[in-house]
Amino acid sequence: MTSPSWAVKAWILQIAAFILTFGAPTVVAVVLLITRTDPDWTGFPAHAYRIAGWTAFPFAALALWAAHRWLGLTAAELGLRAGRPVRAGFFGAMGAGYLTMWLGLVGLGFFPDWVTGADGSPIGAMSAWDGVAWSARAGLVEETMLLALPMAIMLRLRWSWPAQLAVLMALRLPFHLYYGPAALLMVAVWCALLRYAYLRVQLIWPFIAAHVLYDLNVAVVPLGPLRAVITLAMLVLGVLAFASWWRERGRHSEQICSPIAIK
């Protein structure tokens, strides 16, 4: 049984990790939610936002190190090492991660743009280099800090699935508020499907790769055949992966994939 003091330390670490890695994006998202106007991102604000994005990498690494040394979470619990063979394969899981993002963002198409002149980025138009850096940060930092770490904590604490989903949504929603109220629908779909997929492999790397590829495909790859081929291939892999996991639902429970359950 995990002690109450361990739970307190775990959530302190999770909250600190969120503030250090997503504090600046959250502030920007809230400003955009309130003003509904794309601000002038030239000069100091743009530089400060980019610096905050780069510092998220070492802060995320530090948080994972603290989770291992301070909380005693193993690499398998943190999704950094496979505790068992990846069901549906690496690329199947990657396709599932891509599909979850695609479905979440498709829901935004049913709502009008919240921020005037927005182009899908909270900091306006980006260069190709900014797009690559943004995609790498989104994949590596978001999925380790907002999926792998909280799921490791909640599986150790044996929290119920509604509690797990609520926490994942609470972590993922704040810095996406620049989409307006529709962000709640996007995050709900995204987190529900992502949680389902992650519990079937409990390896974070396919979902990092999926997130990086999705954002690169949107921010860097020109609109055209290549973008369409990448999207179609990933969506097919994702559908096949979810279908495979759904067929197995009667033979496996979600906790089978947890290193805690197989100790």
UniProtKB/TrEMBL annotation:
Superkingdom of the source species: Bacteria
GO BP annotation list: CAAX-box protein maturation; proteolysis
Biological source species: Nocardia colli
Phylogenetic classification of the source organism: Bacteria, Bacillati, Actinomycetota, Actinomycetes, Mycobacteriales
TM region(s), chain numbering: 12-35, 47-67, 88-111, 176-198, 226-246
Signal peptide segment: none
Database matches in InterPro entries: Rce1/LyrA-like_dom
Keywords: Hydrolase, Membrane, Metalloprotease, Protease, Transmembrane, Transmembrane helix
CAAX prenyl protease 2/Lysostaphin resistance protein A-like domain sequence ranges: 127-216
Single GO MF descriptor: metallopeptidase activity
Pfam families according to UniProt: Rce1-like (PF02517)
Protein name: CPBP family intramembrane metalloprotease
